[in-house]
Amino acid sequence: MTDIHIRIADWQQDNAELRRIRETVFIAEQSVPPELEWDAEDAAAIHFLALDGDYAIGTARLLADGHIGRVSVLRDWRGLGVGDALLQAVIAEAERRDLKQQRLSAQVQATAFYERHGFTVISGEFLDAGIPHVDMLRESRG
């Protein structure tokens, strides 16, 4: 990780990069149907891009109700702390917006990652796009 940084993205201007990452991770790698990946929430969401220099390598989104989703990092950058930096940026923005609770639906295999960031499992396991998930919650301190 040399020049990794996170910034808030613009859904219109950064659409090609946001779509490229999500299509690669969710649609191509995880076989999520495109009609489940793209939804009406995207237009109003706050989107984040992780960049290595000028190259977009990860993304996430934050909804107005504090729901975090679409957290994804391209394969070649996984295990390098990019997901941690991305999630920290999303949490910081949620707290800046006074969203006392952040929620997400995590793939079961990723629950330990989210637990490191203060999330706790609040549901039983369920399938979303054919992938086992659990709902998780984080309460802001203070």
UniProtKB/TrEMBL annotation:
Lineage top rank: taxon: Bacteria
Recorded coiled-coil stretches: none
Transmembrane segments: none
Keyword field: Acyltransferase, Transferase
Annotated InterPro entries: Acyl_CoA_acyltransferase, Bact_Acetyltransf, GNAT_dom
CDD domains: NAT_SF
Location of the N-acetyltransferase domain: 4-141
Molecular function as annotated in GO: acyltransferase activity, transferring groups other than amino-acyl groups
Protein name per Swiss-Prot or TrEMBL: GNAT family N-acetyltransferase
Lineage: Bacteria, Pseudomonadati, Pseudomonadota, Gammaproteobacteria, Pseudomonadales
